[in-house]
Specification:
By secondary structure, the protein is of the alpha+beta class. It contains four helices and four strands. Strand 3 and strand 4 form a beta hairpin.
């Protein structure tokens, strides 16, 4: 995908500092890989997919690594071994559904010779 740090900056509404750029670039790469896994191979890069990836990167930037939950009233922070937020959100999956390859079954008709509308098995078709 051709998503850059400047794409995230525009949507975030602030400049990303040089010290933070490697983290944002890694998030872009991770989010792009998760979208590719979710959508399957052969999907086209569209403005919708770009928006989803940027939104996921911004969501991940808002979460501090290792923090599992946070409460504002009476300040409560719960730490865990790793942050569980680095996956596609339900909103992202919902937005990406239209880009996933659909599975369907296709009925096949077998050309069998008929005599007076009665199927004759193991007969050669007329030429």
């Amino acid at each position: 995908m051709s998503i850059t740090v400047s794409d995230v900056e525009v949507r975030l509404g602030r400049k990303i500092e040089d010290a933070e750029k490697p983290r944002v670039e890694a998030f872009i790469e991770d989010a792009s890989a998760l979208v590719a896994d979710y959508c399957g191979s052969g999907f086209r890069e569209t403005a919708g997919i770009k928006a989803v990836i940027c939104a996921e990167v911004i969501r991940w930037l808002a979460v501090q690594p290792g923090i599992v939950s946070e409460k504002v009233g009476d300040i409560q922070v719960e730490f865990g071994s790793s942050a569980t937020t680095q996956s596609l959100s339900p909103a992202a999956r919902s937005s990406l559904k239209r880009y996933r390859r659909k599975l369907a079954s296709v009925p096949l008709l077998v050309d069998q010779p008929r005599w007076n509308e009665v199927s004759i098995l193991d007969a050669e078709p007329l030429r």
